[in-house]
Amino acid sequence: MAVFLLLLILLVSAVSGDEKAFIGVNIGTDLSDMPSPTQVATLLKSQNVRHVRLYDADRAMLLALANTGIEVVVSVPNELLLGIGQSNATAANWVARNVIAHVPATNITAIAVGSEVLTTLPNAAPVLVSALKFIHSALVASNLDSQIKVSTPHSSSIILDSFPPSQAFFNRSLDPVMVPLLKFLQSTGSYLMLNVYPYYDYMQSSGVIPLDYALFRSLPPNKEAVDANTLLHYTNVFDAIVDAAYFSMSYLNITNVPIVVTESGWPSKGDSSEPDATVENANTYNSNLIKHVINNTGTPKHPRIAVSTYIYELYNEDSRPGPASEQNWGLFDANGMPVYILHLTGAGTVFANDTTNQTFCVAKGDTDLKMLQAALDWACGPGKVDCSPLLQGQPCYEPDNVVYHSTYAFNAYFQQMGKSIRTCDFKGVATITTTDPSHGSCVFPGSFGKNGTVTNGTSLAPSLNDTGSGCPPQYFYGGDSLTTSVIIGACIFLMTAVFL
């Protein structure tokens, strides 16, 4: 016991707590309709994301991120690792083309050499440390080594017997790689990159790990996991894995290399064999993770020591193979619409939807225009939305099309109904977003506007239809191929349909 407590004291004193933790996001590209780099950068800025990790060093993406101030981790893909690990010149050429060509305009702060190489590409393991050293040498030659760190992400599965954390250790068959790797990280002032997925630990535990323990939910003291060697109490799987990595390093005599979690998240949808891959659980996990990290909570072994973390991931990747969960780790869909609204009140500004509580209801751009027209007419009629700002000559008339006008009307109804999620559906043609659709002099209800004052038209919501048909003629759009007969049909439909 005394040995463990002494080791704990040494570890706490060795890892610096000066740095403030941050939340970043991974950007995968296995989408059938991948947004353009410019669209990606726009979404990142709108969500106040200041740290991203790329799985490559795509030139167009790096150019789109230029002059944004966003800190970027670029990656050497696994398929290039053998070549770079065996040739200093190849590594130098990669750095020149993918890093030097973009800094300082693009704020590259780290290079991830490969991804989970020791567990997914074991034949490249012998050259992994050489690859890191060659990349670092190229940075030194360009005087960039002080601002750009070099490391490689590991799966947490390289840690054996991870609980209790004080008894955890790296798979000893990996020592020929891990020992020189950790010494390299130590000598260059870099950090251990670790992928931490409590979802998989929970799924593979066959009920041993409680769901609440995996999701950061509050536990009564008698339900907390206790490390008998250190008497430290663990309230979540994430902390236990991170501390297990710290102890694993200590057994290799490395006590001053910090950890950055390069991937963590929870899927919002799964197959029948994945019942806990749900929107609610994904929201709970990521919301709690963000608060846990940016509050500098640290871990039981290292309280208030930064454990910066990149959420996996920005977009749902619908082209990824495997079970349904593989396609549903994203915070947003390909259109930039949130899969769910994170519960982040009081957590500080990370994503735009954390403390401002600004959410809006917008029309889906790929929806049947007839359905949009019908829903718009309902909102401006029976829905009692004040649609007068959409009239010609008024601030929200332009652009004069059914998608934009529907967005205004849907959002106005959503706001006046207290932003209840069920009031933003309209038979499937609307969705919730955290991006303010206001523009120019057109300030949407619920927006803080230019002067910081919330705009809410709930007191001005008269019916614009004196006949009760729900189809005010001033909102018909001849330019959108809607014929009179179609509109009349939509109006008849509206008399019997409920859009919410």
TrEMBL record:
EC number: 3.2.1.39
Membrane topology recorded in Swiss-Prot or TrEMBL: Lipid-anchor; GPI-anchor
Boundaries of every X8 domain copy: 359-444
Alphabetized SMART domains for the sequence: X8 (SM00768)
InterPro entries: GH, Glyco_hydro_17, Glyco_hydro_17_plant, X8
BP-aspect Gene Ontology terms: carbohydrate metabolic process; defense response
The entry's keywords: Cell membrane, Disulfide bond, Glycoprotein, Glycosidase, GPI-anchor, Hydrolase, Lipoprotein, Membrane, Plant defense, Signal
Cellular localisation: Cell membrane
Matching Pfam families: Glyco_hydro_17, X8
Gene Ontology MF annotations: glucan endo-1,3-beta-D-glucosidase activity
Catalytic reactions of this protein: Hydrolysis of (1->3)-beta-D-glucosidic linkages in (1->3)-beta-D-glucans
Highest taxon above the source species: Eukaryota
Signal peptide interval: 1-17
A GO CC term attached to the entry: plasma membrane
SUPFAM superfamilies, per the entry: (Trans)glycosidases (SSF51445)
Family of the protein in this entry: Belongs to the glycosyl hydrolase 17 family.
Protein name: glucan endo-1,3-beta-D-glucosidase
Source organism per UniProt: Hibiscus trionum
